[in-house]
Amino acid sequence: MQPTDLSADTPMGVLLDTLPGAKRALFARYHLGGCQSCAFSNDETLAELCARSELPTHEVLEHLLASHVHDSAMLIEPAAAFSKLAKFRLIDLRTREEYEAVVIAGAEFFTQELQQQLFAGDPDTPILLYDHSGKNVLDQVAWFRGHGLKECYGLRGGIDAWSREVDSTVPRYRIELEE
Fold first, then answer.
1. Measuring CA to CA, how many Å separate 119 from each of 87, 136, 142, 146, 147?
2. Which CATH number fits domain 3-72: 1.10.12, 1.20.58, 1.10.3910, 2.70.98?
3. Contacts 24+ apart (CB under 8 A), 1-5
4. CATH of the domain spanning 75-165, picked from 3.40.250.10, 3.40.50.1580, 3.40.50.10540, 3.30.1330.10
């Protein structure tokens, strides 16, 4: 689904898949989705959430779409990242197990020590963060930028998109969670 296809009747699960930063945007402006008292289900529509929260649906949707445009500027497509890879400090945000199993060449595993180095270093150093699928990288990019690292970006689609679109020698994998 494209962002322009979203409407008041869109289920929140679809909305969150279409706009990866929507949960952060909803919480930041409206305090929705961050705790049990303001939570929503993936099956609830945007209109239902807004009605329950006494918010104008059109305003919330406009905010989410504007936030998505802002978020998109913090992401770099895999092919563009590949062409500029030499200028970036490449940081892997995944788990240690994932990093040890599959990695983009030249990436550094994100640790507390590395975080301290980055925050103490040159704030203009270009940094490219990646996770598995790109679903969580925007929150990390926003966090890094909030700490003064203004040249921080996220890899759209994560290492999975990198494997599909740039380097097929990087093995793809699925994360299976225990229930």
1. 18, 20, 14, 11, 7
2. 1.10.3910
3. 3/65, 3/68
4. 3.40.250.10
34 — pLDDT class (breaks 50, 70, 90): confident
pLDDT of residue 170: 96
Whether the Cβ atoms of residue 131 and residue 153 lie closer than 8 Å to each other: no
Q: For residues 8 and 97, what is the distance between their CA atoms, to the nearest angstrom?
A: 40
| Chain segment 3-20, per-residue pLDDT in tens | 999 999 999 999 998 998
Residue-wise pLDDT tens digits, 123-143: 999 999 999 998 889 989 999
The model carries a pTM of 0.81
Polymer length in residues for the chain: 179
